[in-house]
DNA sequence: GTAGATGCAAACTTTTTGCAGACTG
DNA sequence: CAGTCTGCAAAAAGTTTGCATCTAC
């Protein structure tokens, strides 16, 4: 039996936040602070429970950066038609910046994984780690000793 | 000034474990349990401290799967010569399996990111999420129904 | 009225840290 | 002997859960 799913004030608050931030990532704490600043309290438990529901419905994507930071969420839309364009996440291991990249050539990896490895990649959830352009250049400048990587 | 770096029993135990498991992934808890079973206790704090040191030296790679599970570590070797072959990690969102794949074509994404986006990918740390071949087929078979993990 | 949602606080998990004592060189 | 390392236990940080209360329908 499917649950009745009541409509609540908290639910609508969260949904309005999601629509404002479409295409950007946020944490549960970001949501809580957003409403706290407006004197509209939303308990963390509620935030997590609502987000979890949306994640299981596929409206929100959840991904994980590293153990020191909170999970990232990202609203991608209610239906496949108005879905946010698929994009990858690049995380710089040095400066910590998280980039969103949309690039046709990157979708080749998606095709390759599907065709050759039978693996159906979910780009939203995938975070590619490495060193970004800016940090790479800075490291070259200050690199006195030989590095093996 | 560089620290003196004493050689300890615990250090050697850990190193022997690493060499046994080369190319496989493990968690801090796996290490602790491994030695507990042999009545050789290694404190978790020590395990984390030693692993952290090896990670910063580049001998061990550390990556994150999701917030419910512990960080994964993987020993890749002391020098670039005997380094483990670079490989990607594919994580199935359904069955939870973590696959290691070495594939030349996948390295194209590394080149593309470097050349077009100036991003120097670290494949060891990168986990690609999606649905594996086996689960994808199972899901097709049971299509109408809601399926659980 | 009843099923479902909320909010608080406590529980939980993994990882880090402070510190006293043990060990290495 | 001095400098490091270890192990314990407590602390952190993010997330989940139990439960009493409140709300939607």
What does it look like?
2 copies of one chain form a homodimer. Chain A is an alpha+beta fold and 149 residues long. Chain A is 38% helix and 17% strand. In chain A, the strands form 2 sheets. In chain A, strands 1-3-2 form a 3-stranded antiparallel sheet. A 3-stranded mixed sheet of chain A has the order 5-4-7. Strand 7 (127-131) of chain A pairs antiparallel with strand 6 (120-121) of chain B, so a sheet runs across the interface.
Strand and helix layout:
The structure is a homodimer of 149-residue chains.
Chain A: H1 9-20, E1 25-26, H2 28-37, H3 44-57, E2 60-63, E3 72-75, E4 88-92, E5 98-101, H4 107-117, E6 120-121, E7 127-131, H5 133-141
Chain B binds a DNA duplex (25 and 25 nucleotides) through helix 1 and helix 3.
- Strands of the widest sheet of chain A, in order across it, are 1-3-2
Distance between the termini of chain A: 55 Å
Overall average pLDDT of chain A: 86
The assigned structural class of chain A equals: alpha+beta
Largest sheet of chain A: 3 strands, antiparallel
H and E order of chain A: HEHHEEEEHEEH
What would you call the quaternary organization? homodimer
Helix content of chain A: 25-40%
Uncertain parts of chain A: 145-149
Number of helices of chain A: 5
């Amino acid at each position: 039996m499917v649950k009745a799913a009541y409509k609540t004030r908290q639910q609508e608050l969260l949904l309005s936040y999601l629509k404002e931030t479409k295409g950007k990532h946020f944490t549960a704490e970001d949501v809580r602070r957003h409403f706290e600043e407006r004197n509209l309290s939303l308990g963390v438990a509620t935030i997590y429970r609502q987000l979890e529901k949306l994640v299981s419905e596929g409206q929100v994507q959840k991904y994980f950066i590293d153990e020191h930071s909170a999970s990232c969420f990202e609203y991608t839309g209610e239906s496949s038609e108005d879905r946010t364009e698929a994009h990858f996440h690049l995380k710089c291991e040095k400066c910590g910046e998280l980039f969103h990249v949309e690039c046709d050539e990157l979708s080749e990896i998606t095709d390759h994984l599907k065709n050759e490895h039978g693996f159906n990649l979910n780009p939203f959830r995938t975070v590619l780690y490495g060193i970004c352009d800016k940090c790479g250049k800075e490291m070259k400048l200050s690199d006195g000793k030989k590095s093996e990587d």
